[in-house]
Specification:
2 domains, 5 helices, four-stranded antiparallel β-sheet, sequence-specific DNA binding, Tscrpt_reg_AsnC/Lrp_C, Alpha-Beta Plaits, transcription, two-stranded antiparallel sheet, AsnC-type_HTH_dom
């Protein structure tokens, strides 16, 4: 699949809002038959335009009610240092999103933990990697919108 048309875009938008929509639901909303929606959905998945389907959980379900954004500046930009930091990020479950960025920070991390004690522990683990020159943390006071969807 090389191009997406208005039907594909509508299917993608609808699935982004609710990944549990059936092909019949999509059919009713898009104006194509259920079998056409099924073929298009499979094509979008195979083209790598749909990366997965996920449950959106309430923070208290996973005991991760505290969210913070952490800006990270590495101590050096060598390949070994960057690779070691990225390997840590990939394995630590408290880090839910990680972005390599431009500007003052090299990376921005979104983390979710139970509270200040767990945040302090994560900060210690991050510092313990020996890869970080500076950390700047901002605790989220209110979730307004997540994953493109207004917070509950």
């Amino acid at each position: 699949m090389t191009t997406i048309d208005e039907f594909d875009l509508k299917i993608l938008t609808l699935l982004q809002g609710n990944g549990r929509l059936s092909n019949q639901d999509l059919s009713d909303l898009v104006g194509l038959s259920a079998s056409q929606c099924s073929r298009r959905r499979i094509g979008l998945e195979q083209a790598g335009l749909i990366l997965g389907y996920h449950a959106r959980l309430a923070p208290e379900a996973m005991n991760t009610e505290m969210v913070a954004m952490i800006e990270v500046s590495l101590v050096s930009h060598g390949t070994d240092n960057s690779s070691a930091f990225e390997a840590f990020v990939l394995q630590d479950p408290a880090i839910i999103d990680a972005y390599k960025t431009t500007g003052d920070a090299d990376y921005t991390l979104k983390i979710a933990v139970a509270g200040l004690t767990e945040l302090n522990g994560l900060m210690g683990r991050l510092s313990g990697t020996g890869t970080i020159g500076h950390l700047k943390t901002a605790i989220v006071l209110q979730r307004l919108k997540e994953a493109g969807i207004p917070a509950q």
